[in-house]
Amino acid sequence: MNLSLTDTSTLRGAGTVLLPGDPGYEAATVPWNLAVVQRPAAVAVPRSTDEVARVVRAATGLGMRVAPQSTGHGAAMLANRSLADAVLVRMHELTGVTIDPAARTARVVGGTLWRDVVTAAAAHGLAALHGSAGDVAVAGYALGGGLSFYGRAHGLASSHVRAVELVTADGGLIRASAEEHSDLFWALRGGGGGNFGVVVAVEIDLIPVADVVGGMLLWDLSRAREVTRAWARWTADLPESATTSLRYLRFPPDPAMPPFLSGRSLVVIDGAILEDDERAAELLAPLRSLDPEIDTFARIPAAGLVDVHMDPPGPVPAVSDHAMLADLPDAAIEALLAVAGPDVDIPLMAAELRHLGGALARPNRGALTLLDGAFALFAVSATPTPELAAAGEAVTRSIASALAPWTSGSTFLNFAEREIDPRTAFDDADWARLVEVRRSVDPTGVFAAAHAIDPRR
Ligand SMILES: Cc1cc2nc3c(=O)[nH]c(=O)nc-3n(C[C@H](O)[C@H](O)[C@H](O)COP(=O)(O)OP(=O)(O)OC[C@H]3O[C@@H](n4cnc5c(N)ncnc54)[C@H](O)[C@@H]3O)c2cc1C
Known about the structure:
Blueprint lengths: L4 H9 L3 E2 L6 H5 L12 E3 L4 H13 L3 E5 L5 H6 L5 E5 L6 E4 L4 E5 L4 H9 L15 H6 L7 H4 L6 E7 L5 E5 L4 H7 L9 E8 L5 E10 L3 H13 L5 E9 L14 E9 L3 H12 L5 E2 L2 E4 L16 E8 L4 H11 L9 E6 L19 E8 L3 H17 L25 H14 L16
Parallel strand pairs: 2-4, 3-4
Antiparallel strand pairs: 1-2, 5-6, 6-9, 7-8, 7-9, 10-12, 10-13, 10-14, 11-12, 11-16, 15-17, 16-17
Helix pairs in contact: 9-11, 11-12
The protein binds flavin-adenine dinucleotide.
Flavin-adenine dinucleotide binds next to strand 3, helix 6 and strand 9.
């Protein structure tokens, strides 16, 4: 986009706004997913709600779009669709969390990461429905649904959002809740981040959980067939108090890693069980009978749950693919083993199955009513070089394709880092309502989102 000198000074006058060539522009545009290159017309790094509003008004006044972003975990789709006419609004300097222990709520400022919320809540014996990684932002995660290790017991994180404060396309600040702008509030809970405005605060419910039985069981990948079959059988009649994941993990040799990970290929089951110690041990017994090499399941402070999944501690270049599975019969396990098991040599970081069902499969509050599937598949490759990017692209696709016969046909937006049809995440009536809400708050499509609800359709 060609901006005149007057245009650029309008943008710069709105706050910390950097243009291509400015010192700091390159650094400010780097997302969490280092494989993605973002080249927006400008990047803003606001430090206040007023600044967000000024930036939105300056951008729309110049006919530009606005792309909100907290971490850039989900940056791939935004960048694919070009940001050449957009101001990327990076929210990482606008953070903070306030806990109301009596009401059991947290007010989380726009760009805040889960780790900060989890730590603040734990000081009051409370927990939040965070995901597996502490450096994912609350805003993008919760607006996209939010699948946590509390999920089968407590449902989607979006269902526990109480209010959202956002700067809309006209630069105004509004609060959406059950009482105010209730249609927009419905849409924000699970409709996908970035579609309705720049979120400057989210108010969420906390749960009275001070500690949980959490941890992992680990085997060499050569045990994948028997462990996967046992886990699939185990999940079939598991109480909703347990939410777990099974992954095939491959680690390169790395002296910085603990020896049980460095250079190893593994099968790992991890998650949380919201039961007393005796009942949790009873539930874990069938998995423990498989004689894991490492077993860390124990009662831990709730704040420790954000670390059990061992997600990368910081930004990485990665490509991924995803599918929702209706079922995991032996034939599906064989299909997974054929493309990602111990007998194949592939550049894959993780092939993961998250167990769904329970409260995730019952009506939740908001636009994303449920996760339609028994398991969510997520396959991810680290891609430090262009060659590995192409290979990772191919291998993650091959895993999703191999399991295609068992898909529910649905999609979970938070796990979809490729271009997908976002309608597949919702039923027809909810999608039509989402488009209506988008039309009413952003009729010209000012906001650019990872998973776009197009107001013109
Ligand atoms: C290592 C890793 C682990 C993960 N684990 C889980 C998990 O356990 N459960 C789960 O459900 N998901 C998980 N995810 C997926 C993650 O929840 C999504 O990628 C989510 O969209 C990230 O939100 P973000 O704000 O950090 O990312 P971003 O890329 O910054 O944003 C994602 C989307 O939200 C929008 N958005 C972000 N901030 C704002 C804002 N302030 N206002 C308006 N819109 C905004 C963006 O426009 C974009 O459309 C994981 C991802 C990674 C990389």
